[in-house]
């Protein structure tokens, strides 16, 4: 093997490490990727019929307040000025999310000043010193009417569990904005890669000292690699150790994609469905992510429905469940990881943490600076 470093996984964490080590340290980097494409969950591809860019693993919005991450990402792509907005349908009405002044006015059916809205929400909130479950926590923050409309059914579908049986810690807060600012993120920098995610990700990997082997599972070649050179591992933590401490639990998503024969299906990129009797949680319509792409067809659109459920071992792991049993297991896996010589664990799967893209890039830049660069003799 002609490599100085092996990176397992070509998501944003793995590609950031590979790019830095190849370009900055002059290392030869071998990237192993189980899937048949690079980019991890940020990967996108044009729909074959319409050419509309589809975010294959769910809609990905880039947002960060970290100037270093924004500068780094900007080396590989320019960004459009897209700012994300989300709406929720409940009982035939549409409300903007996260909850803001427009949501509260629409929900209570009248014009309210910020102060009046604040008083109204506070009047309905039922403070509890130690909430016993998610429902009690949510009601203590925003009151029962808003909870029952916008949170209860959606959360039950996301977790396939009654919110009264979910731990209160799942939500630390429910952001309520007492302004008409309906943007989903309030980060300093936001946008979408102008020519798509995959062009961005491919540019990161485009270096003569980086070799990407797609369609290669690390565990099929592990015997030939282990111990030879340092490894940065961004696959599932429990799988690395043969699930010795038990399985870490995840939620997975199922997606159905269709081309709808209409110029515009729902008027926005992401619509949440809060009614418990609608089986999907969200509908994504990708054309709205790129209003500047005038070449998108005018007679059809790509629509993707999202369904949520607990992941079995062979499903794609999407969101860590992080139940008390998981947290206990995670501590034991972290100890095993700490003692594993020459292997650096990173990324969302390798640390069992939900990471946004900017967090994955930021964490990879830190690993590069603090651990890999010193290891290879540069400071
Ligand atoms: P990622 O999962 O992307 O990459 C890991 C790679 O390792 C995968 O390609 C996998 O195939 C590979 N791998 C695993 N095991 C392997 C093995 N044994 N051998 C070889 N390869 C192996 N973020 C954000 O900023 N804005 C957003 O809007 C969203 N939206 C969003 C929606 C949904 C549904 C999800 C699940 C996630 C998001 N994200 C997001 C998060 C974003 O996807 C996340 O930050 C990045 O995927 C993290 O990159 P990683 O490299 O850590 O993991």
TrEMBL record:
Pfam families: GLF (PF03275), NAD_binding_8 (PF13450). Residues 150-354 form the UDP-galactopyranose mutase C-terminal domain. One of its GO terms (cellular component) is cytosol. Its cofactor is FAD. The keyword Protease does not apply. The keyword Flavoprotein applies. Keywords: FAD, Flavoprotein, Isomerase. One of its GO terms (molecular function) is flavin adenine dinucleotide binding. Belongs to the UDP-galactopyranose/dTDP-fucopyranose mutase family. NCBIfam families: UDP-GALP_mutase (TIGR00031). This is UDP-galactopyranose mutase. It comes from Sphaerisporangium rufum. The gene is glf.
């Amino acid at each position: 093997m002609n490599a100085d470093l092996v990176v397992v996984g070509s998501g944003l964490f793995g590609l950031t490490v590979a790019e830095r080590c190849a370009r900055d340290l002059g290392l030869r980097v071998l990237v192993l990727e189980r899937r048949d494409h690079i980019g991890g969950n940020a990967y996108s591809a044009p729909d074959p019929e319409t050419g509309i860019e589809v975010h294959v693993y769910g809609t990905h919005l880039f947002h960060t307040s970290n100037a270093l991450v924004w500068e780094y990402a900007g080396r590989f792509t320019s960004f459009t000025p897209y700012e994300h907005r989300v709406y929720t349908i409940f009982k035939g009405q549409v409300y903007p999310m996260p909850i803001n002044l427009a949501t509260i006015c629409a929900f209570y059916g009248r014009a309210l000043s910020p102060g009046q809205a604040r008083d109204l929400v506070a009047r309905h909130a039922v403070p509890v010193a130690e909430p016993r479950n998610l429902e009690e926590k949510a009601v203590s923050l925003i009151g029962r009417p808003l909870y029952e409309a916008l949170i209860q059914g959606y959360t039950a579908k996301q977790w396939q569990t009654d919110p009264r049986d979910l731990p209160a810690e799942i939500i630390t807060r429910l952001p309520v904005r007492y302004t008409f600012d309906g943007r989903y993120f309030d980060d300093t920098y936001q946008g979408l890669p102008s020519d798509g995610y995959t062009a961005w990700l491919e540019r990161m990997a485009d270096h003569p000292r980086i070799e990407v082997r797609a369609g290669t599972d690390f565990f099929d070649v592990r015997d030939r690699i282990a111990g030879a050179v340092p490894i940065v591992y961004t696959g599932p933590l429990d799988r690395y150790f043969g699930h010795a401490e038990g399985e870490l639990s995840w939620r997975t998503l199922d997606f159905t994609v269709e081309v709808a024969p209409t110029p515009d299906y729902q008027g926005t990129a992401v619509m949440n469905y809060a009614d418990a009797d609608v089986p999907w949680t969200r509908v994504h319509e990708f054309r709205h992510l790129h209003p500047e792409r005038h070449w998108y067809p005018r007679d059809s659109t790509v629509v993707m429905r999202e369904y949520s459920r607990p992941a079995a071992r062979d499903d794609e792991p999407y969101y860590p469940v992080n139940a008390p049993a998981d947290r206990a297991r995670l501590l034991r896996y972290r100890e095993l990881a700490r003692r594993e010589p020459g292997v650096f664990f990173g990324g969302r799967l390798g640390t069992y943490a939900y990471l946004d893209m900017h967090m994955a890039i930021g964490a990879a830049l830190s690993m590069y600076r603090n651990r890999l660069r010193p290891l290879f003799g540069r400071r």
